[in-house]
Amino acid sequence: MDSYDVVIVGGGPAGYSAGIRGGRLGLKIALIEKESLGGVCLNRGCIPAKALLHLSHYLTELPSLKNRGIEVDIKNIEWERIRAWKNSIVKRLKRGIELLLTRNRVEFIRGEALSLDRGRVIVRVDGEEREIKAKDIILATGSKIKKISNIPYDDPNVYTLNEILETLPQPPSHLLIIGGGVSGIELAQIYSAFGSKVTVVELLPEILSNFPLPAVEILKKRLKKSNVEFFTSSKVKRVKRSEGKLKVSIEKEGSEIEVETDVIFVTSGVEPNLDLIKDRWDVAPPQEVKIIGDMAGGPMLAHKAYYQGVSTVELIAKKRETIPKRLIPSVIYTDPSIAYIGRIPKDKEEGLISGRFPYMALGKAISIDKKEGFVEVFFEPSTKRIVGGYIVGYLAEELISQLTLAIENKMIIDELKEIIYPHPTISEALGEAVKTVLKEAIHI
Q1: The whole model's pTM is what?
Q2: Average pLDDT of 2-17?
Q3: Checking DSSP bridges between strand 386-393 and strand 143-145, what pairing results, if any?
């Protein structure tokens, strides 16, 4: 029987980061993955979506170049070449993970974990069962699709979240997206940029319900201009095929509306993948079994998974005593992008003071025609500590880490206002937003 210090089940962000860090700490590691390294994020989630959003941003910006003396004529969009380009990015990054595992002496076992107990895992490799002994076991099996009712998943034009970015269907004339979360809205922007009319159906009263509403309203306005329509507080009641089309009955406020579409993307209905441990323990797993990443619940984000993977294996290697709770930024990578961190008050009753600075007052934003958006930061009046903030606009996903750093380090207004930002940059909006609290902002 093979014996290891740590056996990791799952090769997504949580699993492979734990494997690489553990190998560097001198632990003997085995990583089991039945599908592809990189998990959902790399193969059919974050990475393909960002590649396609990058292309979609180019397409939406081209018409505005005419006002600046540049005319561009798009003669052809070759979807097969776009698909091949997307696949090449995924392939390159997977090769990188494989190389890092090898360099750090992690044994990669391509197989399926069938069962586990204290100190051992049974895995099927090439049709044969193999028993592996481990001092500690890390479970990082990710998430899985939870199918919702009334959807004909067997129809060739109905795609789940696991299928959309892996197969990358050709942009249809009309696309209906079920789910107004991050994945659904990013796909809406991608496909509308490539010419599809897009309908988004969301059960809750607003899309991106976890994001600050003022930021969502800016993004929603942009999407509506790009041929995206929204049905909020709505749900799909029936889908039927008729004359080569999918006819979707949508219930909204007690009445039904029928929408005809060519393709349906189902982006809602994701849950932790607990198949391996279903009914395994009455209360909690034993101390030697650690559950991390999407499998552990909470926000299903790759950056959370990376942190949990690294910190968990460091705990096993006795390089740390605890895993402190950290703030986790949330981002949607649309144009404009939105990012938020910490406490974002729903109303003024929460007693926070805030400062807001608009992009339209930034020299850099005006010079590159990225005037849409703003930064807003929140402070406790008594301590003057920064406790939260959000950004809507160009590079929000990059700037949010500065706010995260400030909040984690309990910085106060008087410290933040002293930071010198290079000029001209978008980051100047952060400094100016802080100074608006003190009524010391220069450019507003």
Answers
A1: 0.96
A2: 97
A3: unpaired
Chain segment 236-282, per-residue pLDDT in tens: 999 999 989 999 999 999 999 999 999 999 998 789 999 998 767 66
Cα(434)–Cα(418) distance, rounded to whole angstroms? 10
**3 is written with which tokens?**
């014996």
Between 2.30.40.10, 3.30.70.940, 3.30.390.30, 3.40.50.2300, what CATH number should domain 336-437 receive? 3.30.390.30
> Would you call 423 a catalytic residue per the annotation?
yes
Which of 263, 266, 267 shows the shortest CA–CA distance to 183? Answer: 267
- Check pLDDT > 70 for residue 284: no
Q: How many CB atoms sit inside 10 A of residue 54's CB?
A: 12
Please pick, among 57, 303, 423, 443, the residue that the annotation labels catalytic.
423
User: For the residues of 9-29, what is the DSSP string, one character each?
Assistant: E--SHHHHHHHHHHHHTT--E
CATH level 3 topology of 2-144+271-316:
FAD/NAD(P)-binding domain (3.50.50)
| Two structure tokens written together for 264 | 């349906």
11-37 per-position pLDDT tens digit: 999 999 999 999 999 999 999 999 999
CATH class of 147-268: alpha beta
